[in-house]
């Protein structure tokens, strides 16, 4: 028996990173999975490998959401789980951030989550779950990621309002707040064929040894297990909450 037997779950940004691990784990746990991304080659290869459906979905485009929902309905009859995982990060001091860059981060991270809730919740006629991927920076500041942190704070607001509005439809809505996780977003060496990504991971562990009580960067598989908890009946009485998964980073600072 899998924890997601009989469920149909759409994961955005699922071609790589945390979304990929969520898609893999959800399949292992018995769900039909819709792998959605803008990276078609990687997304299609993953879907083929795990026996899922791939859809091209730019989360910032409402027409793409409509097409993805239709494709999922045609393939599996319905959708009853959504993980809004797709996201982008841009580094810039606020005073140096061009408006276009700020708006692009808003459009993908924040509007993407809103459009996902809007497009998919009406499909969940028998109840369902929505997991929004926020961040450590949804709960505290971090210099040089102002646009990103603003959108991640906004995702928590959206999560709470959606939980209130959708509870009557038996749809639970929660958010994950990962700290530093070893994916291409935090470890761009993963995207560089010439780089040694494993060495880069070790270097990151060294950096986070000083910052994070648990002494290392997080793994995307660990976030996938939290997404599974929030998507399965194990969290049946939980809605509207942010879940921090950060190795203790937000707990405070050690002065000695
Ligand atoms: P990643 O860059 O490996 O994965 C992001 C995925 O989103 C990619 O597959 C990318 O193609 C996809 N994507 C980007 N723009 C898209 C769009 N417009 N439409 C559809 N898909 C799009 O990074 P990740 O760490 O796996 O990121 C997953 C989520 O976790 C993001 O929301 C990110 O903000 C969040 N997060 C990451 C970290 C971290 O340290 N890696 C920490 C906290 C939160």
UniProtKB/TrEMBL annotation:
<protein>
    <submittedName>
        <fullName>3-alpha-hydroxysteroid dehydrogenase</fullName>
    </submittedName>
</protein>
<keyword id="KW-0753">Steroid metabolism</keyword>
<dbReference type="InterPro" id="IPR002347">
    <property type="entry name" value="SDR_fam"/>
</dbReference>
<dbReference type="GO" id="GO:0008202">
    <property type="term" value="P:steroid metabolic process"/>
</dbReference>
<comment type="similarity">
    <text>Belongs to the short-chain dehydrogenases/reductases (SDR) family.</text>
</comment>
<keyword id="KW-0443">Lipid metabolism</keyword>
<dbReference type="InterPro" id="IPR036291">
    <property type="entry name" value="NAD(P)-bd_dom_sf"/>
</dbReference>
<dbReference type="GO" id="GO:0016491">
    <property type="term" value="F:oxidoreductase activity"/>
</dbReference>
<keyword id="KW-0560">Oxidoreductase</keyword>
<dbReference type="InterPro" id="IPR020904">
    <property type="entry name" value="Sc_DH/Rdtase_CS"/>
</dbReference>
<keyword id="KW-0520">NAD</keyword>
<dbReference type="Pfam" id="PF13561">
    <property type="entry name" value="adh_short_C2"/>
</dbReference>
